[in-house]
């Protein structure tokens, strides 16, 4: 019995000894760690908390300062552009009250942008009226001028007017080909009536190259290659600038889908740049004409699924007695190039034609009857 009991107790004693050694080792390890680290736990926690708090405070202050700086820069930019924005009315002394029913529509109250120091003004055709008509311009300082509409195009709803004035502030033109979805933009205009003149709204570029159908006077037309934005745009904003964060004008606000909230559109500034530059340089612009309307490349699969093309614009309409009609060009043909310029949007063709003069000859590369061919066209005068 004695030997049996001794044999049973010995392993239990060894276990207690082993456990004690392990516990002592753990305590010594923790103590040595704290000792050699040179700080006690309470001191370490206090310093860490203090460092964290100071770092957070510094970062918060830097963020606030950065936001303030950006806000000042935006305000400075808007302050620079605002004097370039004008009020436009089709009726002289039409009044400036918002209480007139449909004032923006019935009185033609709208917006325009000065694009040269000697009085050229860019706006919408539906704001100023068509070529050879008159409208009335009100500057920021209250001066009013009678303006002559020198050029207009109903297809893109743009016009250029001229007032007899000098040394005017004017907007810097940006590059609408390089804008990206998500960029911040600002719209400036005269919504509703002149009480709210030069109202500034902000938003982002929501989409590019939009096509909008316009139903007017029992006729349907399409505006293509538009910039879509969620910056608030009301009827009186029509003709006002869409401004990038660097203060350059990248578009002219034009139409709004009234059945949806937060959807507005602007015509890209690059469309009309060649015309503005020629007026600034020569004081005149003789518009050349090809006489077609075409759909953008991305629309081609919807109008003709059999056309598997990676470039080109689809000819949808040819004006009677136009230069294009005299060449044998037909609806359904796809224009791949004009001279050496590859075409993917109607805007590409329109911009190129604006750089030409009536009587100039251009070469069209056309996909017709399942093969490519070249057609020479002498441009007419619009």
Notable traits:
382 residues, alpha+beta, 6-stranded antiparallel beta barrel, 6-stranded antiparallel barrel, 20 strands, globular, disordered N terminus
Q: What letter string, H or E per element, gives the SSE order?
A: HHEHEEHEEEEEEEEEHEEHEEEHEEE
Broad shape: globular
Label the structural class: alpha+beta
* Gyration radius over CA: 35 Å
**Overall number of structural domains:** 4
Distance between the termini: 126 Å
Q: For the residues shown, what is the average pLDDT?
A: 82
CATH fold node name of the largest domain:
Thrombin, subunit H
**SS element count, helices:** 7
The main β sheet shows up as: 6 strands, antiparallel, barrel
CATH 4th-level superfamily of the largest domain: Trypsin-like serine proteases
Describe the structure concisely for a colleague:
This protein has 382 residues and is of the alpha+beta class. It has helices spanning 2-37, 41-81, 103-106, 125-128, 273-282, 300-303, 346-354; strands at 85-89, 110-114, 120-123, 134-138, 144-153, 158-162, 184-189, 199-216, 219-229, 241-244, 249-256, 264-268, 288-289, 292-295, 313-318, 334-338, 341-342, 361-368, 371-378, 380-381.
Structural write-up:
The structure is a single chain. By secondary structure, the protein is of the alpha+beta class. A hairpin with a 5-residue loop joins strand 2 and strand 3 (120-123). The strands form 4 sheets. A 6-stranded antiparallel β-barrel has the order 1-2-3-6-5-4. Strands 7-8-9-12-11-10 form a 6-stranded antiparallel beta barrel. It has 4 domains: 2-71, no CATH class; 82-162, Thrombin, subunit H (Beta Barrel), CATH 2.40.10; 178-276, Thrombin, subunit H (Beta Barrel), CATH 2.40.10.10; 286-381, PDZ domain (Pdz3 Domain), CATH 2.30.42.10. It contains 7 helices and 20 strands. The radius of gyration is 35 Å and the shape is globular.
């Amino acid at each position: 019995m004695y030997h049996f009991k001794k044999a049973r107790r010995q392993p239990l004693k060894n276990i207690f000894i082993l456990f004690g050694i392990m516990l002592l080792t753990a305590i010594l390890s923790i103590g040595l760690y704290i000792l050699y680290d040179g700080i006690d736990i309470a001191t370490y926690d206090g310093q860490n908390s203090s460092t964290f708090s100071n770092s957070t405070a510094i970062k918060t202050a830097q963020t606030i300062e950065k936001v303030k700086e950006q806000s000042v820069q935006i305000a400075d930019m808007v302050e620079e552009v605002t004097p370039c924005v004008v009020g436009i009315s089709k009726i002289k002394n039409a009044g400036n009250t918002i209480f007139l029913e449909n004032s923006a529509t019935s009185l033609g109250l709208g917006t325009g942008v000065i694009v040269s120091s000697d009085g050229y003004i860019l706006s919408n055709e539906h704001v100023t009226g068509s070529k050879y008509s008159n409208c009335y311009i009100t500057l920021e300082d209250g001066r009013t001028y009678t303006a002559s509409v020198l050029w207009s195009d109903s297809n893109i709803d743009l016009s250029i007017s001229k007032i007899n004035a000098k040394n005017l502030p004017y907007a810097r033109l940006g590059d609408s080909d390089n804008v990206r979805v998500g960029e911040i933009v600002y719209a400036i205009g005269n919504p509703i009536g002149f009480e709210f003149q030069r109202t500034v709204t902000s938003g982002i570029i929501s989409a590019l190259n939009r096509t909008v159908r316009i139903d007017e006077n029992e006729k349907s037309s399409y505006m293509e290659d538009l910039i879509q934005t969620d910056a608030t745009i009301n009827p009186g904003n029509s003709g006002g600038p869409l401004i990038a964060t660097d203060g350059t004008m990248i578009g002219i606000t034009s139409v709004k889908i009234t059945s949806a909230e937060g959807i507005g559109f602007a015509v890209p500034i690059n469309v009309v740049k060649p015309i503005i530059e020629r007026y600034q340089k020569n004081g005149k612009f003789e518009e050349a004409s090809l006489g077609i309307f075409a759909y953008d490349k991305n629309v081609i699969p919807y109008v003709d699924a059999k056309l598997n093309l990676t470039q080109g614009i689809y000819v949808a309409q040819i004006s009677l007695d136009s230069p294009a009609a005299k060449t044998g060009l037909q609806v359904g043909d796809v224009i791949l190039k004009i001279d050496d310029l590859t075409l993917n949007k109607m805007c590409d063709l329109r911009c190129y034609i604006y750089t030409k003069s009536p009587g100039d000859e251009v070469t069209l590369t056309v996909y017709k009857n399942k093969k490519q061919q070249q057609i020479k066209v002498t441009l007419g005068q619009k």
